[in-house]
């Protein structure tokens, strides 16, 4: 008798030093369904999917496909069984073209020669059929993150996978791209493909999934039909307490300008033109100013130019009344906290311990050193305070290696370190990317608290819910320029989306062009 379950993960247990990531979890995926996996950061979702994809081997439990037990020792075994995965941090080779990335490891050859023409035709047919348009000859390093994700999806389709795992697939997409991805996922399900979808975003889970399995602290909490539940019930199941889904904040009490940019330009690495082109704005004490936009429109370069990670090519940056246009990164950091976009590249030293990461900019303060020697006891004590205050979960506390922590807990560590420095300006780039509702609620509260202490907060976010919920003022950036300024109380997501896509822009003086 054919089983209705295409994949069954029965009583899976996976342990790491000091932590049981998956504790006797059972998950059953039906043929042709979109099954969401929901849980806090560090709940064990990515670990469970990595077991299914062959990246980890479980200590206990069995995996069945179509009722038959299978052994998945590595990703090649998973691919042979028709299982594909789009990872939260994409697995692409930046200097290869899009086409080379898609066919890598699954090349069509004849007598030892690569048959690129056939491969190209197959990829073009897939991209046409599913509306996943990409430039096959572009190098991955030159395309946007949204495009990179399409490449990852085409990689799965090229291998004829029938079980598709999406790990936080919308973390880096715009509202329009998210809608397209959701439509694509529904299309896959209609064709009989089965989808496992890891997400923290309750709106998306409610919009596309048939069933939802909730994990909490490595344990299975339950599976529910999406149509029989609501966002509040799911968030309560996931966190184990009632969560405020709306940001609570008083009206802003504005002070002087803390940060002023005038005619600010940053060159582009990919093109001849500027990535940031003559941008001017102020961020005032006591306000959260948000820069919204589709990924790849100059927000990253704006922050790099502002923090000193890239050299600007024109204009001025004034911080707390001082011109810092040509100041060093360390000098800028004396008045600025920076929560970076890429937590692995610029946020953490991954092979350092958690406690070492928490004092990266402060180890030379008298509290942490004497006569040039670091006071390990003071560092440990400080790290323990921050870990407790920000609920940073890790297997071995302060001595956990940063690389081994879940993405969300790495993010919490960075936020703890940066906000605790108490600087007049907080630059927060995608501060809640990949975080669950409980952590988002906490971090939003912390950013509002910074604002209420009279600090200026510059928020750069691709999450329109976050933009609308958290900001006092919104600037939309498109192709390196500011194309609109909005009061969140007097606009909506659809209108912002049009400006973000370049379909509308404001003239000088604030009228729509």
Which CATH architecture of the largest domain? 3-Layer(aba) Sandwich
The total strand number stands at 24
Lateral arrangement of strands in the main beta sheet: 6-9-10-3-11-12
Q: Which percent band covers the strand fraction?
A: 25-35%
The poorly predicted ranges are: 508-513
Q: At the first level of CATH, what is the class of the largest domain?
A: Alpha Beta
CATH H-level superfamily title of the largest domain: P-loop containing nucleotide triphosphate hydrolases
What is the CA–CA distance across the termini?
64 Å
Shape: globular
Characterize the biggest β-sheet.
Answer: 6 strands, mixed
- Assign the CATH topology of the largest domain: Rossmann fold
Global structural class? alpha/beta
- How many distinct folded domains? 3
Mean pLDDT score, rounded?
86
Number of separate helices: 17
Radius of gyration: 24 Å
Helix content estimate: 25-40%
Q: What do you see in this structure?
A:
This protein has 513 residues and is of the alpha/beta class. It folds into three domains: 5-239, P-loop containing nucleotide triphosphate hydrolases (Rossmann fold, 3-Layer(aba) Sandwich); 246-335 and 423-513, P-loop containing nucleotide triphosphate hydrolases (Rossmann fold, 3-Layer(aba) Sandwich); 349-422, no CATH class. Helix content is 32%, strand content 27%. The chain contains 17 helices and 24 strands. The chain has a six-stranded mixed beta sheet with strand order 6-9-10-3-11-12, with helices on both faces. α15 (437-452) links the parallel β21 and β22. α14 (407-419) packs parallel to α15. The longest helix has 16 residues, at 175-190. It is globular, with a radius of gyration of 24 Å. It starts with a strand and ends in a 13-residue tail after the last helix. The model is unreliable at 508-513 (pLDDT under 50).
